[in-house]
From TrEMBL:
Gene3D superfamilies (UniProt xref): Hypothetical protein af1432
Organism, scientific name: Streptomyces physcomitrii
InterPro entries associated with the record: HD_domain
Highest taxon listed in the record's lineage: Bacteria
Protein name: HD domain-containing protein
Domain annotation HD: ranges: 33-103
């Protein structure tokens, strides 16, 4: 399912509630809470980078799109949000730490790791609707698309 609107993306994110995923580092985490916590940590550390925050919010949705499949969730999530949220968000979601990760991708993955360990009250999903709408609106304007 490729979300065609912010409303559809919000519904997909809400469907992550209660979906527990193994992280390989510690016990399983609730995907919904993990998304909120990752985005909240990025909001605190990079308050002006809305695309980075949104990437933190949506980076795990591949698990909801194909539950139980251990591989390929990052690519699936990136493709699902590319048209709505843009190339940079898709790149951030897809990119995994490797030999030379881009600094913003490394920041995202560090926030994800910190969120797994944090006991953080990250608010509610509805708090993110205006940020999602802002990032999506940038993609619909001429010249609003970003290069990876």
């Amino acid at each position: 399912m490729e979300p065609l609107s912010v409303e559809e993306l919000m519904e997909l994110l809400d469907s992550c509630r209660g979906l527990r995923i193994a992280t390989g580092r510690g016990g399983p985490v609730d995907l919904h809470e993990h998304a909120l916590q990752t985005a909240a940590l990025l909001r605190r550390s990079h308050p002006s980078d809305k695309e980075l925050q949104v990437a933190g919010l949506v980076h795990g949705i591949g698990h909801a799109l194909r539950p139980g499949e251990p591989d390929g969730h990052a690519d699936l999530a990136a493709e699902a949000v590319r048209e709505l949220l843009g190339l940079r968000v898709a790149r951030l979601v897809r990119e995994r730490p490797g030999a030379e990760p881009a600094p913003d991708a490394l920041t995202l993955h560090q926030a994800g790791a910190a969120a797994r360990a944090a006991a953080l009250d990250a608010g509610v999903l509805e708090d993110w609707r205006p940020v999602l709408e802002l990032v999506a609106a940038r993609q619909t304007r001429p010249g609003g698309r970003h290069t990876p």
